[in-house]
Request: fold
Amino acid sequence: MWAMRAYQHAEVYFNLISSVDPKFLKLTKADEQIYGEFRKTFGDLKIDVLDPEELKSEPAKEKWRPFCMRFEGVVEDFNYGTLLRLDCSKGYTEENTIFATRIQFFAIEIARNREGCNSIIYNSAKKPAAAVAEEAVTA
Reply:
């Protein structure tokens, strides 16, 4: 059941960043707090292409655990399992997806949206529609 919910969440999110400029998305009521705490704690974390070790190794878990716990009671189901893309320029595939907590997903995706990393998805989804419209005008 949780796997189905995680997949549906991933699908809805990917459709959202494909159709709305991610720079303007607000994912939670606590986006400002999440982003501020995330960048304060993980200022050097490369978010465009994630290294799974930065999320799953024992030293990483020791750093993530206190970060995640700050959002207990702030973000609903903050520790619920969800799917996270490793490379933000690609979709959800078996090779490009890792299991993460919901607050890790929010922290990384809010940063990706604000820092322009997810714009590649939006722009590539927009491009085919623009090309079709242009062909219709020139035909």
